[in-house]
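On clarity, I found the account of how folds are encoded harder to follow than it need be. What matters is that the chain and its backbone geometry are given together, residue for residue. For the editor and my fellow referees, an illustration may be useful. For illustration, here is how one protein appears when written out as sequence plus C-alpha cells:

___
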Amino acid sequence: MRGLDINMKKAKMTIDILMVVILLLLMAYSMVGENTHEVIGIGMFALFLVHHIINRKWWTSLFRGRYHPARVLNTIVNVILAAVMLLQPVSGVLMSKYVLKSVRIRGAGRLRSIHMTIAYWGFVLLAFHLGLHLRTITVSFRKKLGRGVATVILILTTVIAGYGAYAFIKRGIGDYLFMKVGFAFFDTGKSTVLFLLDYAAVMVLIAGIGYFIQNGLMKLQKRKGGK
C-alpha cells in the first residue's frame, strides 16, 4: 500500500512538471510553430484531465469541512483555473489550422485575442496555484536538505523572482492579461531559450506571491485557533 502511495505521488509530480514545461512552450507558440503549438496544446489538455482524475477527491470534498481563508483562496483559484483550462482548448480547437482543422469555424480568427488573453490568465493562475501548494514541499525540503541548503535555495529563488518582475514588464505580460494588445508579437530573431527562461522566472515570481499569501493566511488561521 505504501509503495502504491509513493508511485502515485511520483506520478502526480511527473504530471505537474510536464504541465509546467508544456505551458512554457505553449506561451512561445510563434517560436515553436503553430502546428507544434496545437499538438502540445492537446497534450496539455490531456494532462489537465489526468491531473483532475487523480485529484478527484478534492472536488468531491468541496462541500465538506470548514472554509478558513486559506481554503477559500485555494478553492477560488482552483475553480477559476479549471474554467480557464476548459475554455482555452475550446477556443483553440475552433481556430485549429492543422490538427483539428475540420472543426474550425468560419470567422474563428476573431477568437485569437480572446484565446490569447485566456492563455495568459491560465499562465498566471497556474503559477499562482503552484505557489499555493509550495508550503508542503518547502517543509519537506527543509527536513531533507537542512537549513543551510534550504536557505541557499531560498536566496536563489528570490533572485530569480526579482528577475521575473523585470521580465514581466519587459515582455509586456500585463498588456496581454488586460487585452491592451490584440496579438502576440515575438521577435523570432531572438533566442527562444531566453524567452522560455524569462517566462519561467515570471512563473517563479507569481508562485512566490501565491506561496507567501497562503503562508500568511495559514499562520493567521493558527493564531486564531490558538486563542
